[in-house]
Amino acid sequence: MPYEHDESREPMGDTPATEPESEPDSPGVDDSVIHTRALTKRYRGGQLAVDGLDLTVPAGSVFGFLGPNGSGKTTTIRMLMGLIEPTSGSARVLGRPMPRSARTVLPHVGALIEGPALYGFLSGRDNLVRYDAADPTADPRTRRTRVAAALDRVGLTAAAGKKAKAYSLGMKQRLGLAAALLQPRRLLVLDEPTNGLDPQGMREIRSLIRELASDGTTVFLSSHLLDEIEQVCTHAAVMTQGRLITQGPVADLASGVRGRLAVTTPDTGEAARVLKEQGVGDVVVTEDRVTGEPPDRELADINTALVTAGVRVRGFAVERATLEDAFVALTGEGFDVAG
Ligand SMILES: Nc1ncnc2c1ncn2[C@@H]1O[C@H](COP(=O)(O)OP(=O)(O)OP(=O)(O)O)[C@@H](O)[C@H]1O
Fold first, then answer.
1. Which of 45, 264, 321, 339 gives the lowest tally of CB atoms within 10 Å of its CB?
2. CATH for 292
3. Domains held by the chain: number
4. pLDDT tens profile 245-280
5. Ligand 1 centroid vs 329 CA: distance in angstroms?
6. What distance in angstroms lies between residue 73's CA and the mean position of ligand 1's atoms?
7. pLDDT tens digits along 212-236
């Protein structure tokens, strides 16, 4: 996807004299490490990619930034990292305004955006040595130790001597994470960290993320995969077409939403007919189950109607709502990953 600026990770804008070169603030009264107010980006072509975003990422959370392709996730991340300027609105990262405080903030942030930039002809270890050498605050005397520790953290010690071009996509992602972990970080920002990986690679990256979060680092990761967010995140925000539709603890997002009604029965055909008649929406039949969206009325009456019609009901329950149910309830649309 083309961007307004090149892939340089140099922060834009200088730190003005009014912004002291000190440690970024501790997360602040509201305890958020990322905080945006009406953050908006309109690209030069006129495309409104992010529209009035108010995002709050609590310290210590694993925060999933969820949305179909093209919903504005990468654009938001690039604004947060000071890579592009917002059209309007504001963003604070670690309590400091971005992009103005990029120089002070970014050393505390490990970022993996759009796949790591690697030299294929160098070994995994030497790629990390290069990254570390590019950091003016990194002491060269302890470089080898730092690189070894980062490789160990992501499980690449055994493959450290191999050229990066021989790495699988999953190994490349892990090497990118290792680069982000050369220094202790307060925040990790990962843009679609499992994109393009096979299921095994996805599992590895997800468990690595959980592990990284367990030591208190806040992790902000974007994804277009609902189940991924449900599996690894404590909090999430859901975007669609540049707008935020909801945010909060993952457990709460779906709590106001009714899950699907599921009837287990050998008489699926008859059950489906009765359920439709009773006002159940989106009826789906699988082997020995019929599910659907429950209507807003007494469910016991639906059960009675099934039994009266001679359906042998072996199970009758409303399942716990998933994030997908919440998305559908909030937008009235399916969660279309193809965007
Ligand atoms: N440099 C650019 N110039 C113009 N429009 C852009 C630019 N970059 C992104 N867009 C558009 O802005 C919208 C949001 O894109 P963005 O990449 O932020 O979404 P996303 O949610 O990260 O999706 P993806 O996962 O596909 O990258 C899209 O409609 C996209 O086409």
1. 45
2. 3.30.70.100
3. 2
4. 889 998 888 777 778 899 999 999 999 999 999 999
5. 25
6. 8
7. 888 889 999 998 888 888 889 999 9
